[in-house]
Amino acid sequence: MVDVLAAPQQVKADTSLRTLSAISAAHWVSHFHLMVLPMLFPFLKEQLGVGYIELGFALTVSAVVSGLTQAPIGYLADYIGARKILLIGLIVGGLALIMLGLHLSYAWLIASAVLLGIANSVYHPADYAILSAHMDEARMGRAFSIHTFAGFLGGAVAPAIVAALVATTGGHGALIVAGAAGPLVALLLVALGTPDASAADRQIDGARAPRQNVITPALIMLTIFFMLLNLSNAGIGNFGVVALMSGYGVTFSSANIALTAFLGFSAVGVLAGGFLADYTRRHSQVAAACFAVNAVIVLIIATIALPSLLLTAAMGTAGFLGGVIAPSRDMLVRNTAPAGAAGRAFGIVSTGFNLGGVVSPLLFGWIMDQNMPHWVFGASVVFMMLTVLLALVTDRKPQDVSEGLDEGLLQP
Known about the structure:
By secondary structure, the chain is mainly alpha-helical. It has 2 domains: 11-196, MFS general substrate transporter like domains (Growth Hormone, Chain: A); 217-403, MFS general substrate transporter like domains (Growth Hormone, Chain: A, Up-down Bundle), CATH 1.20.1250. The chain has 13 helices and 2 strands. The protein has a two-stranded antiparallel sheet with strand order 1-2. Helix 3 runs antiparallel to helix 11 (342-369).
């Protein structure tokens, strides 16, 4: 009798593991593909005869396209199926790099950037829709954390992989081989039988559930929350090295070690945050507490010239706490989304990340141009404190948040 009862549970566990593995592999590809073009800038500059401004413009195009298409892709994921959208994204992103490798020109670079932006907009809505529908509720936070960690890992190993590909196959070959990862992982998803998720599939009491408006005040607040999260970390990640060198007299190697600690411990923090997210329902309080401590640590970095060892420890701790927040952040969105609307919800809030990605290079670049390197960390502290306040505001049930906003009565 025990074996008969245990068999369905084992089958469900195996299916969940295959699904999580496949979706995490897709997220790995998304972050890996985002790094391919930047890693090939020296090759592209020489081959195309353009400057870094023209190359940077391609990345801007990709970011803008991704930002504009996140929400529409989320709607498509909910209504035609998240798996279909994810497979299309993997193939389109892969073909964008493959075609650039076969027909290298600046026009193809911009076209590739557009396609990569569209492909990148697929992953968050589709991935989270599938995970939300098919992961064990008791392990949802850990599933989200493994998914996020896989993305971090894809970006972390991209420089080494691209460098190895250039050394063995040349720049053209590196684009083609890197691009091929997309269709290959799409085939993996099909082979593993990755399940679909769409609003058309969900039923309530045997009847299809009615359509619901997903753009609620609570979700709008979470979109702002995502934008502030990006702004809190982007300055340190993109300008931390130059700020430490010019404002604090830190050597190039010490600054890079500190940034490596920040990024590396962020990935470790994501995994730890998954366990925490599964053992608490107070996800906004977790985010607020971690960012409050982070703000203090970064404020110390901003105002005190720390010795290299302490600087690295402080940056690593800040990165770890920033990573811990990620699964709780994702659970906040999932808990806010109406049933069957995870794709739309994550598509909308991910637009906040894209908005932060557009604003942060301009803001922190301006700060450095004004010779105010201390404010790279100082501005991050300001954004962290705003994030804490907004997290505390969201520390209510989604329907309560919406009602409070509608009535103008919401208080932290």
